[in-house]
């Protein structure tokens, strides 16, 4: 593209680095910011710099936090006997939004993926094992994506956690609520028949 | 959404203000930036602040510029006898990308739109009239969107520029190159028959 300004070109180049943002979208966003007053633009760029410079990761669960120990880990209202293992912060938010879970989390920071060169040592595995040592934790729930990487990670962690004599579970897989049978893929549908549950248990409460 | 960090929430809120960016996209972009090193994030926010604080608008054509008079207006290679009137910077870029125009531009900064409360006084109309006074300009080309607002603006400007005894033209409307007849809307197709051109003129050079 033919920019009339080097400053504009730089800003567009920076925005284009963001995932899913092409050059045309970047230009639209930059021109939008250019129409805002200086204070608003300062606020925008300030929020990002501040976030990057001041953000911490909870020493216990490794979730994003403003403090050394995150709100969830330090809350006396949460059940410290259950740990839900997730891939990243977004998953914590998603589960928190359901209001169905009152335990603690453990953010792995990724999934085992040999193709991408991510092995167990790149993830927060040792600290998870460490958290189980005092015997307070009774159950670990794996809430990982239903992908090859997710399954590999569960397989690996399951072996690691076996010695602790705790309940190990994974979130239920099956047909989504509101899903129509004819559009469900065969693997999900097939497994949902094999892993059928008693009718009483299937009711939402 | 349930953010585990106030800093994160602020950054997501700022990104959500951008056009076409919802909260989920904003979160994805912010988490992406969080994964970059501090220097890269500084560079990102720096480029935007610098753009907003240092950008200028060309005193002649009102296009975005790094200097008081933009590159195009100050270039001796451009034909100062032709002015192409456009809505905004993006249109200048689009036309420059075609490499088919060698004249100067005039950026109106919008289109007349009574619905949005934009009248002629909100646009760079007076300075366009001013540019015609020394008699150097022989032709004004309107390259505005083929919308009600574009047509209204052309109608208004045409009356304003009549007294100057210059050629006033608009960019050609018709069927796009590669367009299939059956998918073209009736108005465009109908007008393209009425405003047909001699075959020799229609060939791309």
TrEMBL record, chains A, B:
One Pfam family linked to the record: RecR_ZnF
Zinc finger (C4-type): 58-73
A single BP term in Gene Ontology: DNA repair
Superkingdom of the organism of origin: Bacteria
PROSITE patterns from the UniProt entry: RECR (PS01300), TOPRIM (PS50880)
Record keywords: DNA damage, DNA recombination, DNA repair, Metal-binding, Zinc, Zinc-finger
Domain Toprim: 81-176
MF terms (GO), sorted A to Z: DNA binding; zinc ion binding
SUPFAM superfamilies registered for this protein in UniProt: Recombination protein RecR
Function summary: May play a role in DNA repair. It seems to be involved in an RecBC-independent recombinational process of DNA repair. It may act with RecF and RecO.
PANTHER family per UniProt: RECOMBINATION PROTEIN RECR
Similarity section: Belongs to the RecR family.
HAMAP family associated with the record: RecR
Protein name, UniProt field: Recombination protein RecR
Name of the encoding gene: recR
